[in-house]
Amino acid sequence: MPTADYRTIPLPDYVEYPVEEMRARAQAFHEHIARRHTVRDFSPRPVPRDIVERCLMAAGTAPNGANHQPWHFAVIGDPAMKHRIRLAAEAEERAFYEGRAGEEWLEALKPLGTDAAKPFLDIAPWLICVFGQRRSRSADGRLRKNYYVPESVSIATGFLIAALHAAGLATLTHTPNPMGFLNQICGRPDSDKPYILLVVGYPAADARIPVHATEKKPLDQIATFF
Ligand code: IYR
Fold first, then answer.
1. Closest Cα to atom 6, ligand 1: which residue?
2. Which of 14, 92, 128, 201 is disulfide-compatible with 124, CB 3.0–4.6 A?
């Protein structure tokens, strides 16, 4: 039943391509996104803020629960704040690598060569703390419960990573565990849960990536058609 709350407009900006062009575009996007690699060696070269802002606007278009857009991006370029984050993250990481992870997890991480040192948190020009909001305010100021928060935040983060890559920037999805310190440092309420700390910048001139990270499963291992 239509209600006063439910109003529609014609689909405003869909673009249909001929099938051959669709095929070419799908291939071009695959080739484009396959050139995105998680980078851990960042350059200190500055990145203009407006570029990050535009990528966040792209992230903000992600599909999400009830269109409550249950996310907040705390964007940190301030060196003192980045350093506080580094110190707090490294403290958690030391506990993780010195035992909290457990043997199986540490074994799984060996091909990535990671350890508790996170110099990129000082070096990269931007850190984006991605928070999921369990509750947030509607346009008219009412505090509402949010839905599908992890799913919504993950999709938006995927959009963000793709947007940053399209702009020519390198990213690292960093997940120190636990990340509660980000609420304190970024001044976010307890109802905001930190999901991912996205490190953003130019790769260092001599950046390297683990071979392990380049080994992607073939289609027949990731998809079943019926
Ligand atoms: N958060 C740690 C450990 C880590 C865990 C996974 I799963 C990774 O894919 C990579 C790292 C760290 O950042 O070192």
1. 109
2. 201
